[in-house]
Specification:
- Belongs to the complex I NDUFB10 subunit family.
- Helices cover 60% and strands 0% of the residues.
- The protein has six helices and no strands.
- The termini are far apart.
């Protein structure tokens, strides 16, 4: 500060904080209630929670290390175990959606809904090729498009043999029985 300032206009600040003047000799009731609440409620609850948390920390199971039991396949289910059937069906539907694996046969784990869509697309592509050849060749399409017609007939025959009798609401059990019938028919024809 400059030496020529006006001390009347700007007094110097006090050097120490002034002492609070107590107007009464009685203690503050708010202070008493807050201390009473702290020692009777807050401190015991906090201590109890700390003890419980320390016990839990020792026995903590990490969720990403949890091992789930394997869902059984339809072939592993006992006869009449409807809960096992349901679990296998739901696992099969989830597996086809999440993995997108395509197998050649109708497999009970990979339900036919995903596979039939793949095979439907194959039939559509072959059918488009056959129609394009028919459009291109005109009246003589049966001679010139014999290869495409043969591919279409084979694709539709394969699709029918796999998914023909399953219907719109194909289940894993129906699919498994269809596969079993096909295997038995193939075995009977080879004998």
């Amino acid at each position: 500060m400059p030496s020529d300032f006006d001390k009347g206009a700007y007094p110097e600040p006090p050097r120490q904080t002034p002492v609070v003047d107590k107007q009464t000799a009685l203690p503050n009731p708010a202070l008493i209630l807050s201390k009473l609440f702290y020692y009777s409620v807050d401190l015991p609850v906090t201590t109890f929670r700390d003890v419980v948390d320390s016990i839990r920390a020792k026995n903590k199971s990490v969720y990403y290390h949890q091992k789930f039991r394997r869902v059984p396949d339809l072939t592993e289910c006992q006869q009449g175990d409807y809960l096992c059937y349901y679990e296998a069906e739901m696992h099969g539907q989830g597996a086809t959606i999440s993995t997108g694996d395509a197998v050649d046969e109708c497999d009970p784990v990979f339900l036919s809904s995903f596979l039939s869509k793949v095979d439907q697309e194959i039939v559509k592509v072959v059918q488009e090729r056959m129609r394009a050849c028919h459009q291109r060749e005109g009246a003589s399409y049966q001679q010139n498009c014999a290869k495409e017609i043969e591919q279409f007939n084979e694709a539709t025959k394969n699709y029918q043999s796999r998914y023909g009798d399953l219907g719109a609401y194909a289940s894993g059990r129906k699919c498994l029985m269809k596969q079993k019938e096909r295997m038995m028919a193939a075995q009977a024809s080879s004998d």
